[in-house]
Specification:
By secondary structure, the chain is mainly alpha-helical. It has one domain: MFS general substrate transporter like domains (Growth Hormone, Chain: A). Helices cover 76% and strands 0% of the residues. It contains 20 helices and no strands. The chain has helices at 31-65, 69-96, 99-119, 123-151, 157-183, 188-193, 196-206, 213-218, 222-232, 238-249, 256-259, 265-280, 283-288, 290-296, 302-327, 333-358, 374-392, 394-402, 411-463, 472-491. α5 (157-183) packs across α18 and α12 (265-280) packs antiparallel against α18 (394-402). The model is unreliable at 1-25 (pLDDT under 50). The protein binds beta-D-glucopyranose. Beta-D-glucopyranose (BGC) binds at residues 51, 165, 168-169, 172, 278, 283-284, 287, 317, 395, 422, 426.
Length: 492
């Protein structure tokens, strides 16, 4: 039997729910917290920019190097594979080196990769650059939100991690814009190389900041942990926070065995399933093939399709992520997820019906000659609703949940496993989307994504506990209590 928080400190004043009306209110954002926010924003920008930029760069790469189809696919998708490996390694590294140093190294690797891409003399070196960039993004995608979740005061934790998603969407949007601006000159080297800028800014933002108190305590640096807490959580009871974290860390060494131990099976399953469903509900298929859908809706020139994608996918994605930032800590994780999944499911169903109505319009067909038509316009509206619904729910909330549900003993590695599952699922969808449309048809494929929304809805409804307003230690204690309750139930 294990109790993680001594009764005297559970729950601490600092960790309990929302402040009383008229009290100090939301925690003040001081320079340290602003620094943490900057780190989170820059890491998200790297992730998003990288996700969005390649589609615009491909034309120029094809013109300069004349690669075959396989090489084009590798150039496009191996970033995701690099990220998968980076994410897996990041957990152990973030536990050993600390969150802070891991983020700095990720940014350095990323900058190096971007420079290699920009100056690549041929496809071989370009692919090495892509892998390096992917690796850096993968490491940062684990370490940055983890750092944010551990640094943020409880009442701001959801907001902080949602800001990460907001930055991802801004990165995607920025990449669309840069692609459009530089398309005329076919400056693909500049498109890829520009991501050095946020990487360098990330190193600069990270250097003056402390590591998280959780990590300092993990490695026995109590003074530094106290200072970090005093800096980032002014007004909170530092001694109680320290006691709480120390109790949650326990005395055991973290190992991979501990990550997969039956005690933490519930949060690990939750994290992995949510990470995979975030991708299997089709977001990146829609983002990637947006232009085709706009073609079906009657946007006749390639330029019109690209700018329609930029604004109705890119900008709507950014805009609706603000809803999550504003409400994730007020309404909670569950309501946002459930509402968003309903919107996503219904709009995917509609997109499927429209494809069926359009008959001969397929993802593969050169649909640029389509005249504007009703089914196309309905499809466009449905797609905007899909993006908006994802943006205030599955996009940000999945990252928030992944970064808060694991106990501190295994958090680094467990977050890494869930994040790697997300990258793996993203790779599967983008790699096999076209094959799926060949086998099931466009309508069938979008209905399959809609079916995944139903699965996700049921999963969230039955299995996801609300974590709004709970400290990380309280969430950890919740799993221990549940294990004890179910052990007790099976013993009787
Ligand atoms: C997902 C990405 C996706 C992005 C879209 C993120 O949460 O992990 O795969 O491209 O949202 O905004």
């Amino acid at each position: 039997m294990r109790n993680l928080s001594p009764p005297a400190t559970t729950p601490t004043a600092a960790h309990s729910g929302p402040p009383a009306a008229g009290s100090a209110g939301a925690p003040r954002i001081n320079k340290w917290l602003a620094g943490v926010a900057a780190v989170v924003v820059l890491s998200g920008l790297l992730f998003g920019y990288d996700q969005g930029v390649i589609s615009g760069a491909l034309n120029g790469i094809q013109r300069d190097f004349r690669p075959g189809t396989l090489v084009i696919e590798i150039i496009t998708s191996w970033v995701t594979l690099g990220a998968l490996v980076g994410a897996l390694i990041a957990g152990g590294v973030a536990d050993r080196l600390g969150r802070r140093r891991t983020i700095v190294w990720a940014a350095v690797l990323f900058a190096l990769g971007a420079a290699v891409e920009a100056f690549a003399p041929g496809t071989g070196i370009l692919i090495i650059g892509r892998l390096l960039v992917g690796f850096g993004v993968g490491v940062a995608s684990v370490a940055a939100p983890l750092y944010a979740a551990e640094m943020a005061p409880t009442r701001l934790r959801g907001t902080f991690v949602s800001v990460y998603q907001l930055a991802i969407t801004i990165g995607i949007f920025a990449a669309y814009l840069v692609d459009q601006l530089l398309a005329a000159g076919d400056w693909w080297r500049l498109m890829l190389g520009l991501s050095v800028v946020p990487a360098i800014l990330l190193v600069i933002a990270m250097l003056p900041l402390p590591d998280s108190a959780v990590w300092y305590l993990k490695v026995g640096q109590r003074d530094r942990a106290a200072k970090a807490l005093r800096d980032v959580r002014p007004g909170e009871d530092v001694a109680a926070d320290m006691k709480d974290i120390e109790a949650s860390l326990g005395s055991r060494q973290t190992s991979w065995g501990e990550v997969f131990s039956p005690t933490w099976r519930a949060p690990l399953t939750l994290g992995i399933v949510l990470a995979v469903l975030q991708q299997f509900t089709g977001i990146n298929a829609v983002i990637y093939y947006g232009d085709k859908i706009f073609a079906a809706a009657g946007f006749t020139t390639a330029q019109a399709q690209t700018s329609a994608s930029t604004w109705s996918i890119g900008a709507v994605n950014v805009l609706f992520t603000f809803v999550a930032v504003a409400f994730v800590d007020r309404l909670g994780r569950r309501p946002l997820l459930l509402a968003g999944l309903v919107g996503m499911g219904l709009s995917l169903l509609t997109i499927g019906f429209c494809f069926r109505r359009l008959g001969d319009v397929t993802i593969h067909s050169d649909a640029t000659s389509n005249a504007p038509n009703d089914a196309g316009v309905i499809m466009l509206v449905a797609m905007v609703i899909f993006i908006a619904s994802f943006a205030f729910s599955l996009g940000p909330v999945v990252w928030t949940v992944i970064n808060e549900i694991f106990p501190s003993t295994v958090r680094g590695r467990a977050v890494a496993v869930a994040t790697a599952a997300n990258w793996g699922a993203a790779w599967v969808v983008t790699q096999f989307f076209l094959t799926l449309t060949d086998t099931l048809g466009e309508a069938g494929t979008f209905w399959l994504f809609a079916g995944m929304c139903v699965v996700a809805f049921l999963f969230v409804w039955f299995f996801l506990p609300e974590t709004k307003g709970k400290s990380l230690t309280e969430i950890q204690q919740m799993w221990v209590d549940r294990n004890e309750a179910s052990a007790g139930a099976s013993a009787t």
